[in-house]
Amino acid sequence: MPEQFERGTLGRLRLHVLPTKRFKTFAVSLFAGVPLSESGVTPTALTPFVLRRGTESYPETIAFREKLDELYGAGFGFDLYKRGDHQVVQFRIDMINDRFVSTNESLLKEALRYLGEAVTAPALEDGRFRSRYVEAEKTTVTKRIEAIINDKIRYAAERCTEEMCKGDPYRLPSLGRKEELAGIDAASLYSHYRQWLEKAAFDLYVAGDTTLEEVESFARQAFRLPDGTPSGYSKPVLVPAREQVQTIVERLDVGQGKLNMGLRVASTYGDEDYPALLLYNGLLGAFPHSKLFVNVREKASLAYYASSRLDGHKGLMTIQSGIEIPNYEKAVDIIREQLAAMKRGEFAADDLGRTKAMLSNQLREIQDSAFERIGFDYNAIVSGKERTADQFIADLEAVTPEQIVAAAQGVKLDTIYFLRDKKGGA
C-alpha cells in the first residue's frame, strides 16, 4: 500500500499526518487561510512577521530563535500567498528525527509546542502585541513590498492581475498594501490577530516517522485556538472574460518592456477537466518546447523570456514576456496567434507526449520531498478534490488532443498589460 495521509480533527484544527520512514526528518506545516478582504489583507500579512519575534515563554527574539538551536538546528519560517479567494499563511518547521540524535525528549513534541506557542501564544505587553516588534516588522513588510516594485518582472505580473481583477478581492496582494501599514499599531493588530485566530481555517500537517495518535496528543498540548469547528474553503467564483479586451499601458523607468496578458479559464483544480487544462498550459507556455518559447522567443526573437502560468485555484492564466519596447505590436500579434492555434488543435503529438512526460515527472518528484507532498495534499483541502499523484498521472496520460482543444475553447483573453519606458509615443 502506498503511504497515505491520515486525518483527524482537534477542535478548530484539522490534522493531516503522513506516517513514513522515508525521511530522516520531520516536516511540519501549519496552514491558516482566511477570505481575502479589503480591510484584512494588510494586517493579516503583517501578523506572521510579528509572531516570529517571540512568544509567551520566549518573549525576547534572541531567546525565541536560540530555542531552534536546542532542537538540533530546526528550521522555522513562513510564506504568504493566495489560494483561490483566500489569503494563506503557511508556517513551517523541519527538524531531525529523534532516532538520529541523543535526546530524552521527543523533538516532534518540542517542535509542535514551539509552533503552537508561536501562533497561539505570542509575546504581549499590556494585553497587546509588543509595540517595538510591530513597528520593526512594519518596516520589514514595507521593504518587502518595495522590493516587488524594484523587481519589474514580478511587479508587472502583480499589476496585470490587479487590473484584470478590479472589483475582485483576488486583485489584493498577499503582502498587503504599503500605504495601510502606517495606520496599524500594536493594539489594532492584536485585535485583528484575535479575529484571525477565530476565523481562519487551520490545517496542521506532519510528515515523518510518527502516527496520527501521537501528533494529536502533542498538538492538543501545543495549540490554544478558540473553540469551534474547523472552517472550510469556498469554491472560487469563475468570472467571465471581458467582451472587449482591455489594454493597460504603464510607464516607469525601465529599459525593457514587460508584456503580460491575463486570461480567464473555464475550469479550476477541482474540476474533472483540469488535467486537460494543465496540459494546455504546458503546450502553450510552461516548458522550453512550448509554443510561446519556441515561436515568440526562438523563431521570432521577439522576447527575452516568454511563458505562461496557470492559477488552477482561481481560474486564471497569465502570459509573461520581456520584449524590446518597439516590438510590442508584433509580440501581441504572435502571442494571439499561439492562442488561436491552440483552439484549432495545432500542436504536435510529440509535443503533447513530451508535455505529459514532463508533468508526470514533476508529480513523481513530489514523492521525494516531504514538504512537496504536504503542498500537493493541501491543494485537495483548498479545492475539495482529492487526487493522489498516481491518479493525477493516470488522468494526464488519458487526456486526448480533443479534450485539450475543448479546454482551449474556455480560455479567453481579458487583459493586456504593458510596462514600458517613459519615453516615446503612446
Automatic annotation (TrEMBL):
<dbReference type="InterPro" id="IPR011249">
    <property type="entry name" value="Metalloenz_LuxS/M16"/>
</dbReference>
<dbReference type="Pfam" id="PF05193">
    <property type="entry name" value="Peptidase_M16_C"/>
</dbReference>
<feature type="domain" description="Peptidase M16 C-terminal">
    <location>
        <begin position="184"/>
        <end position="359"/>
    </location>
</feature>
<dbReference type="InterPro" id="IPR007863">
    <property type="entry name" value="Peptidase_M16_C"/>
</dbReference>
<dbReference type="InterPro" id="IPR050361">
    <property type="entry name" value="MPP/UQCRC_Complex"/>
</dbReference>
<protein>
    <submittedName>
        <fullName>Insulinase family protein</fullName>
    </submittedName>
</protein>
<dbReference type="GO" id="GO:0046872">
    <property type="term" value="F:metal ion binding"/>
</dbReference>
